[in-house]
Amino acid sequence: MKDIASYTLEALKRAGADKASCRVASGRKDEFNIEANQFTLMRTVFFDDIHMKALVGGRKGVIIINKSDRASIDEAVKNCVAIARSAEPDECEDIAPLIENKDFDNRSGDGKADMDGLFRRTKEYLENVKEFFPKIIIESFSSHCNIGEAAYVNSNGVCFSQKNESYSFSSMFVGKDGEKSSSFNFGGANLANMNTPFLDSGMHRRLLEESEKSINTKMLDKKFTGKIIVTPACDDMIWGTILQNFLGDRPMIEGTSRWKDALGTSVSDRKLTLRAVPLHENIVGGQRFTIDGFATQNVDFISEGILKSFALSLYGANKTDKPRADTSPYNLEVSAGETSLDEMIKGIDRGILLNRFSGGSPGASGDISGVAKNSFLIENGKITDALQETMISFNILDAIKNISAISKERVNSGASILPWCCFDGITVSGK
């Protein structure tokens, strides 16, 4: 990978780039597929990816190709520099400075796919679902062994490489009893090895149990304002939305983020600490260098309610004159709270347990609405009926200031480490 990246970098400079960078990735994915509770496919997929960037007089050209032979690289280099020369100048475009070069090895094994173990766990999963969850239909399922390596170089002398080996699975399922069925749901996890049954990974067993309970649902009879418990399975609804819509490049550059001037101030309940943890020992295959050429670190975005960092790339930081994040906005962790999940539920007179949310992204104000799916009514401190698809609406920035509790329990999916979180003041609409 380093040889290919170095060749591409030198070709970009010879073609006229003032500054240049190149990221090369290569790997293979071995996978098994299941549909309708039956094995349907085994395959191996190979991939190559070269991402090249040229700067000519402050003008940027970018090309991504999936071939690594020199003829393809040479042609892409020529086109990349031509794109840069025809682009509008932007003084904020740049490449990472040289700080410290390093090679990273994230492999937990010997770099060889454990296909026997992957098949055994996949077959075991199918058998366990049939035995323990007879009303669950696996609509689609895939299990993977992912082996790859990547390298990044730029004309400032930056040079990184990373080797990865991991396993993962993803399942989409539905509860069915005769003509009745639940809404579909999905789950999965990233794994370092094949030591753990898929059913016991993340919160997968609980999601299957709740899908069976969701075959028979109840429609809410009236609108109310109350509490919702967002489960770790619904992570993008709150945490991903905050990073994308209020801390990332686009809202910060456009100036639409309500937090654009909030660094160092209180933005949430002090119970909340939200961070990116690619280097955490329980994160599988965490990113070791960013796409713009910086070594990644674990970074607090919000610490005890205080905004500590934006999620800006090098370009976003230059464009806004704000600090760059020493990470990418993935592999999220929310610190555990002081309340057990059972205690959290007992403290709710009327609310819902939210496993999946279907809705649009919020506007600049933070207002958001959508449909609660695979969710349950909480009444008088107990989880009662599975709900028909129910509308909920709230302001996401106000919601994180009204956190009633965060659970002691957390779910490690290999990609994130998240608790259950209870928010107050949420509007829930029935008939």
CATH class of the largest domain: Alpha Beta
Taking pLDDT < 50 over at least 5 consecutive residues as the criterion, the unreliable ranges are none
CATH topology of the largest domain: PmbA/TldD fold
**N- to C-terminal separation?**
58 Å
Radius of gyration: 24 Å
Provide the residue-averaged pLDDT.
Answer: 93
- Helices, by number, come to 9
- Strand portion, in percent? 35-45%
Largest sheet, if any? 10 strands, mixed
**What is the percent of helical residues?**
10-25%
Q: Any idea what the shape is?
A: globular
Question: How many domains?
Answer: 2
User: Pairing-aware structural class of the strands and helices?
Assistant: alpha+beta
CATH superfamily of the largest domain: PmbA/TldD superfamily
Structural account:
- By secondary structure, the chain is of the alpha+beta class.
- It is built from nine helices and 22 strands.
- The chain has helices at residues 2-14, 70-86, 115-132, 204-213, 235-247, 249-254, 314-320, 341-346, 396-399; strands at 19-35, 38-56, 59-65, 102-105, 136-154, 159-177, 180-181, 185-191, 217-218, 224-230, 274-276, 299-303, 306-307, 332-334, 350-354, 356-359, 367-373, 376-379, 382-387, 390-395, 403-412, 417-429.
- Strand 21 (403-412) and strand 22 form a beta hairpin.
- The longest helix has 18 residues, at 115-132.
- It is globular and about 70 Å long.
